[in-house]
Amino acid sequence: MRLRKQALGSRNLVGARVEEARKDLGMKQKELLAQLQVNGVDMNASGLSKLEGQIRSVSDIELIALSKILGVSVEWLLGLKNDP
Question: How far apart are CA 77 and CA 81, in angstroms?
Answer without folding.
Answer: 8
